[in-house]
Amino acid sequence: MTETTPQRPAAPNELAITFLYYKDLARAEAFYRDVMGFPLVIDQQGLAKIMRVCDDAHIGLVDEAHGMHKWAETRPVQFCIRVPDVDEWYAYIASQGVENLSEMFVNDAIGIRAFVFDDPEGYQVEIQTATREGA
């Protein structure tokens, strides 16, 4: 009898979610809903709030008291959003009183114009626009 190697399932993926862990889930949800404008698409009853960033991207906000990981002081994660008009977003975010808002910057090596700021618990958010095709 010949053994076959299992193959990757052919069905397309249904959803992709990046999970971030918070001490104050309600505050994080309010920021991503009210400031960033992300709709809540799945409410996991106080454990996590899954919000749509765009058609094919979601962010999961997790109560660290119930998640698979715990909140940590060091945040080696950056949440990045590509937008058509980074200047419009900069003006808006600057009016929201966010922490650690950078100046606008250009990175010619990777072809972006961007800025960064921190969410309510210190995760860095980058908002960027491509400065050249294919970037």
Describe this structure in words.
It contains two helices and eight strands, in the order βαββββαβββ. The chain is an alpha/beta fold. The protein has two domains: 14-72, 2,3-Dihydroxybiphenyl 1,2-Dioxygenase, domain 1, CATH 3.10.180.10; 75-135, Roll (2,3-Dihydroxybiphenyl 1,2-Dioxygenase, domain 1). Strand 3 (48-54) and strand 4 (57-63) form a beta hairpin. The relative contact order is 0.17.
Give the strand line-up of the largest sheet.
1-4-3-2
Strand content: 25-35%
What CATH first level of the largest domain would be assigned?
Alpha Beta
Estimated radius of gyration: 18 Å
What CATH calls the topology of the largest domain is 2,3-Dihydroxybiphenyl 1,2-Dioxygenase, domain 1
| SS-based class | alpha/beta
The major pleated sheet works out as:
4 strands, mixed
Low-confidence stretches: none
Number of separate domains: 2
Overall geometry comes to: globular
The portion of residues assigned to helices is 10-25%
Q: What's the order of the H and E elements?
A: EHEEEEHEEE
Characteristic terms for this protein:
globular, 2,3-Dihydroxybiphenyl 1,2-Dioxygenase, domain 1, single chain, four-stranded mixed beta sheet, 2 domains, alpha/beta
SSE map:
Layout: E1 17-22, H1 25-35, E2 40-43, E3 48-54, E4 57-63, E5 78-82, H2 86-94, E6 105-107, E7 112-118, E8 124-130
Parallel strand pairs: 1-4, 5-8
Antiparallel strand pairs: 2-3, 3-4, 6-7, 7-8
